[in-house]
Fold this protein.
Amino acid sequence: MMTLEGKTAVIFGVASESSIAWAIAQQFAEAGATVFLGYQFKFRSRVMQLVKDKPWVAGWFPCDLSDNDEVKKFFGDLDTKVDTLVHAVAYADPSTFRKPVVMATAEEFSDALSISAFTLLRIIRFAMPKLTDGASIMTLSYLGAVRCVPNYRVMGIAKAALEATVREAASAVGGRGIRVNAISAGPIRTLAASAIAGFDAILAHVEQNAPLRTNVTQDDVAGSALFLASDASRRVTGQTLYVDSGYSSIGVPLAGSL
Ligand code: NAD
């Protein structure tokens, strides 16, 4: 069994009960980890509701990852070593999902890449003094990083940058045995996903065409996050692990042919 007994995890990206980060937090706690959350202030009331009966959440603090000082303060104030860092954060201006990618402004492009990719480097930088040797860092990506997906647009470019960031960061911190990986999750209905037009059609398409003929759940992703956080994955770094019912492996959709 994979255990996180004695380990401390810091998780960014809980906004609601449907957040992938929330499923990860729960599975980490069930495996024995002490869990701290960093959340965006605008989701404060939702997060308070979620954590109120959860003694396994050792602390929850607002932290906007776009604000250098807030991230610095978050880790400065954190009075614990950190064995696992989870970055489940992405943002692009909602208008970028609705207009042709060539109409994105420099500011929209830069915001999407900065919040969705650069913030991984920012949290690693300020977490470094607290990270244990052999710590595991992970982020969440999507197929749009490597293939064009309808309506994903600037976010696809941001996810490509994120996956490259994972490889660069893995090389930068690997000397201390610290690992950095991405999980590329299949589509899941969450707040973030609600910005993408036609999302239901994508879910239906994956269910029909993925080798496993089913969509993934937050718990499926959390199971792989648990593997990446545990010592079972101790020599895995710089990778993107697909948790997508195998959808990324197909070339031609086979709906109806089997
Ligand atoms: P979600 O809306 O629950 O989570 C997105 C999180 O990003 C929120 O908690 C939000 O507060 C946080 N965030 C955005 N800007 C931030 C900022 N400046 N500072 C701090 N936090 C900020 O949705 P989710 O689907 O659970 O998304 C989590 C991650 O999983 C994202 O990176 C997303 O791209 C990725 N992902 C989602 C899917 C999917 O289909 N839902 C698939 C693959 C990857």
Remarks:
- Residues 8-244 form a domain with the Rossmann fold fold (CATH 3.40.50.720).
